[in-house]
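Sync notes, pocket subgroup
Present: LS, DG
LS reminded everyone that the earlier model was apo-only. Rerun requested with flavin-adenine dinucleotide included. Inputs:
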Amino acid sequence: MNSTIPVPAVVLRIRQVTADTSLLTIRTKFDHPVASLFLPGQFLQLSLPGAGEIPLSYCGSPSSEGDIELCIRHIGHVTTSLKAIVPGSPIGVRGPFGRGFPMSTYAGQDLLLVAGGLGMAPLRSLLLALLKQREFLGRLTLLYGVREIKSLLFLDELLELQREGMIELQVAADHPGHCLDGPPGCRIALLPALLDGLDIDPGHSCAALCGPPVVYPLLVSGLQLLGVPDGRIHLSMERRMKCGVGRCGHCAVGTRLCCVDGPVFSYAELAGLEGALV
Ligand SMILES: Cc1cc2nc3c(=O)[nH]c(=O)nc-3n(C[C@H](O)[C@H](O)[C@H](O)COP(=O)(O)OP(=O)(O)OC[C@H]3O[C@@H](n4cnc5c(N)ncnc54)[C@H](O)[C@@H]3O)c2cc1C
Ligand code: FES
């Protein structure tokens, strides 16, 4: 496979998820690795003719049909240009790139997914992949923190999974007052507070984190306090990246490049690297 050349794709569906975020479903070639052979936490490069190319995390699960789900926050040139696309619009995709979450180590474990803001996009991919092998897993808990309730992504889906007993869900919003229309049990708290006193079996738990780098130190120390070993804490360092292809050096952490060696690392790998979590 030559991942330097974009594979043609067309837009199938666009769903508005929040005021500034959409879920895009695109279809590329049947059984193409860019759609069928990725791990949650990996990313692709999406090119929009006339606008440019951007890295995006996979938000859905692998599909042999060639379908790919992407969650896009419209904030800059390319992402805003993507607002104008309609079903049938042509785009290009390259990938998958990077290292994803270590799914093969999760069998028989309790899983704790911790998402901050748009970090829910790659963790939705992980959640959907885990649900496909639900019978081989123990407890599946999602802790999800946002600034405001109106920024919650995929809330209906998550509440449905909670009702069906497939996941345990806890939601927090940073600011007081914003929980008035929030889901049942929503707390006004910062994301790391959801770890306080959490009932887990640390010897049989793995944690997967994706969110703004500023919350990682508190999340990691909270998980350590609960007894989760460093090698079972996996975090995505995607926010450190710029070019995504190992050229700009923006994502360097010690001797590692997040875009090439990650974006997912275990905390055991990062612990000795200066500046890894700042
Ligand atoms: C591995 C990886 C995975 C990612 N996954 C996702 C994902 O799943 N979903 C997602 O939405 N994003 C994701 N991103 C981020 C996404 O790639 C960027 O949002 C995108 O590249 C921005 O491109 P752009 O052309 O729209 O923005 P640009 O135009 O390049 O703007 C970039 C920044 O400048 C700011 N900016 C732009 N114009 C203005 C202006 N006029 N005034 C003030 N500020 C301005 C924007 O707010 C933005 O912060 C990911 C990034 C990486 C590296
Ligand atoms: S993001 Fe440019 S080198 Fe990694």
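DG: Residues 202 and 228 are 5 Å apart (CA to CA).
LS: The two ends are 36 Å apart (CA to CA).
Action: DG to write up.
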